[in-house]
Amino acid sequence: MKRILLVNPWIEDVAAYDYWLKPLGLLYISAMLRNAGIETLLVDCLDRHDRELRQFTGKTPVDRYFGTGQFYSEVIPKPHCLLEVPRRFKRYGFPVELFRKKIRDTLDVDAVFVTSMMTYWHYGVSECISVIRQEKPGIPVVLGGVYASIMPEHAEQHSGADAVFPGTGVRLVQQALDYIGINKELESNWLDALEPYYGHYQELSYAVVITNTGCPYKCSYCASWKLWDGFSQMQADHAAGIIGNLLQERLIKDIAFFDDALLVGGRFKSLLQILRERGTSSRFHLPNGIHTRLMDKELAALFRDCNFKTINLALESVNENVQRITGEKVSSSDLARAVEFLKDEGFGPKEINVYIIADLPGQSSCDVKRAITLCASLGVVPKINELTPIPGTPLWKDLVASGIIPDGVDPVMLNNSVFPHWWKNGLSLVELQELKDMAHEVKEELLSD
Ligand code: B12
Fold first, then answer.
1. Which of 85, 283, 364, 379 lies 20 to 30 Å from 420 when distance is taken between CA atoms?
2. Is the CB of 19 inside a 6 Å radius of any atom of ligand 1?
3. Bridge pairing between strands 232-233 and 212-213
4. Does residue 335 have its Cβ closer than 6 Å to ligand 1?
């Protein structure tokens, strides 16, 4: 039987937290391969609940907010370009020696499939691949995922993989199989036929799911349209089956939805109706900002009946010009309406957060303050995210064309925690800190009421 090792690399960054992070793409690939009779093994460097990690570090993982928690981490030397940035650089996840042992311990494999997420986590990807090469010389190492799709040339030059497969979906995995010479036909329908394979995990404090792929909008700062070939929705019954199995077989309490466009197309309501009828005892979370304009009374009631605990609404800016330029998907009055629906169903600042992107071109510190004040007046928590210019997006292209971002800059410099340290055209670090403090005060005040 053919055997493929799947690897989710470390995060190497100035900050990271297990905010419901699971390598969902790899778990789907595992299901596709198993369905075709290929054995799969997984080494997930970010599995906080791995038993060997516990023995290795002597630390018991602590679950905080609904199954989330701190990763084990070690300070590592900074990449040269970060030397001026006054932040420590860390490797989050398995210690190198544990990873090395796990790779060594896997029996013979025909290939290694490595995934990747944020472009600015590429140092973790290449270090991981270099350890795999040392421990499994001569075995083909193939890279895919978000970083590989957004920056394929960079990944080809720097990751050390034998081949890079940009894109998504089953056809891509088929190409990767063909490349390593495994002659197996994958089934073309995966979204409505397969369940992400969670059987690799010994323990799970939460699970993540998707109910659709892609997004029909094309916001200037977002790369979703680059990753997925159009917008596809999963049948509500199938999504309910995935969730039902996770709850029953793995006794999961917390489920986070990873969709880019959860509310678009209306299927999500059908899914929640099924879950309501079945009467689940789990808690649901929306870590990605949902399309605020698509919130309505019925959805708010479904969120209540299905026990939603984390609802992040996307606002990004209150500046109408910025709203127009970035994609016109939300206005301040949409936010007020959505919050009203949710409050009518008993939700408040404990559950509702509003994403605001500081530093969007054209967005002043005053705009961000207005957005925070709007949240305070509506009684919901503002969450400030620094801009992360994503290579290839219209916003990134504009910043490169105007000379603000040097073309060819190391992606680690575009990380939202690093970018404000060197971007002269944006808000200063002092201004950003002031805005974060202001948002924090609003949060404290709302939560103390
Ligand atoms: C879920 C998600 C998150 C989650 C966690 C993600 C995680 N596990 O790390 C949360 C909510 C925490 C998050 C946060 C953020 N995110 Co996010 N996130 C996503 C999202 C919506 C989905 C990823 C996903 O799981 N998709 C579903 C699975 C099924 O797809 P997949 O992993 O891509 O796998 C498929 C293929 O890639 C391929 N594949 C995967 N691996 C391999 C391997 C091989 C060998 C092969 C052949 C194929 C292959 O096959 C799979 C099946 O088709 C993506 C957008 C997107 N659509 O990808 C953004 C995205 C990755 N995030 C993005 C951003 C900007 C952020 C934030 C910075 C936003 C902010 N300002 O705060 C934060 C920062 C997080 C941090 N800690 O630094 C950007 C990327 C930025 C970048 N430079 O890389 C994206 C692309 C969205 C966007 N706005 O454009 N995010």
1. 379
2. yes
3. antiparallel
4. no
For 264-278, the pLDDT digits (tens) are: 998 999 999 999 999
Q: Is the CB of 385 under 6 A from ligand 1?
A: yes
Cα 344 to middle of ligand 1, angstroms: 33
Is the CB of residue 16 below 6 angstroms from any atom belonging to ligand 1?
yes
Q: Whose CA is nearest to atom 36 of ligand 1?
A: 168
The model's pLDDT over 164-208, given as tens digits with 9 standing for 90+, comes to 999 999 999 999 999 999 999 999 999 999 999 999 999 999 999
Whose Cα sits closest to atom 30 in ligand 1?
25
Map out the domains of the chain as residue ranges: 3-180, 206-448
CA of 73 from ligand 1 middle (Å) equals 21
24 lines ligand 1 (CB under 6 A): yes
The fold of the 3-180 domain, in CATH, is: Rossmann fold (3.40.50)
Question: From the CA of 395, how far away is ligand 1's center (Å)?
Answer: 18
Q: Which runs of consecutive H residues, i.e. helices, occur in 15-145?
A: 24-35, 51-57, 96-105, 122-135
Ligand 1 center to 190 CA (angstroms): 19
Q: What is the CATH number of domain 206-448?
A: 3.20.20.70
Protein residue closest via CA to atom 82 of ligand 1: 118
Ligand 1: does its nearest atom lie under 6 Å from the Cβ of 287? yes
CA pair distance 195, 32, nearest whole angstrom: 9
What is the rounded distance in angstroms from the CA atom of residue 197 to the CA atom of residue 188? 17
What proportions of the chain, in percent to the nearest 5, are helix, strand and coil?
45, 15, 40
Q: What is the pLDDT of residues 342-368, one digit of tens each?
A: 999 999 999 999 999 998 888 899 999
Burial per residue of 268-294, b for 16 or more beta-carbon CB atoms within 10 angstroms, e otherwise? bebbbbbbeeeebebbbbbeebbbbbb
> 12 and 127 in contact (C-beta within 8 Å)?
yes
Amino acid identity of 41?
Answer: L
Pick the closest to residue 313 from 348, 356, 345, 343 (CA basis). 356
Residue 230 DSSP code: S
356 lines ligand 1 (CB under 6 A): no
Q: How far is the CA of 117 from the centre of ligand 1 (A)?
A: 5
Handedness of CA 416, 421, 423, 426 (dihedral sign): positive
Helical pair 122-135 and 96-105, crossing angle rounded to 10 deg? 40
Q: Which atom of ligand 1 is nearest to the CA of 22?
A: 8
Q: Give the gyration radius of the chain's Cα atoms.
A: 22
313 and 289 Cβ atoms separated by less than 8 Å: yes
* pLDDT, average across residues 242-258: 93
Q: Which pTM value belongs to this model?
A: 0.96
